[in-house]
Amino acid sequence: MKIIIIGCGRLGGALCDTLSQQGHEVSVIDRDPYAFERLEHFFQGNKVVGGGIDREVLLKACIESADGLAAVTSSDEINIVAARIARQLFRVPRVVARLYEPRKADIYRRLGVATISHVTWGVSRVVELLCYSHLDAIKTLGSGEVDIVEVEVPHLLVGHKVNDLTVLGEIHVVAVTRQGRTFLPTLGTEFREHDQMHVALLAASAQRLKNILGIH
Description:
Blueprint: E1 2-6, H1 10-21, E2 25-30, E3 46-49, H2 55-60, E4 68-71, H3 76-89, E5 94-98, H4 105-110, E6 114-116, H5 119-130, E7 136-141, E8 146-152, H6 162-165, E9 171-178, E10 181-183, E11 196-202, H7 206-213
Helix pairs in contact: 1-5
């Protein structure tokens, strides 16, 4: 994937290194050229000096072909403007913005922008949001703590019941689509072949759900 990181601070630098190690094509933007010194020696991505809301700078970072963008500067205002530019002007499919002020979270959500607010879990969360996953989130709730994901029932779960997939407080099947009809299941509902299910889960439980579904 082609991913742009705006802001090469602690979080931005860690994101660049992590995504680069995973084989993604990364471009990083920062006003301070010395900020790139915090990147690891193996980072081979594109380093662009300039503002993350400058159209010419974004074009140098190849935003027109970007699959994802994370705005993680120290300014909420710059992050939200950069996120809006990416989504509305350049139609970047996946956009994530860092949030310092929780009261602004509703603004981001109304714009369809996923947010993260804690450096301690931010790196893994942003990577999860940006990169393709079989658990593709169709809705993120709160400040990113809960996701609604859509996934086809794997063969190993056919014949099993919703209760077998439920983990109280972590993973809940909220809807099932079968032969074009969507309904609310009970714990006793049996999965059938080709069922599509919508699952509400804690973002931190994504790997646990993948393990249950046999997704690697």
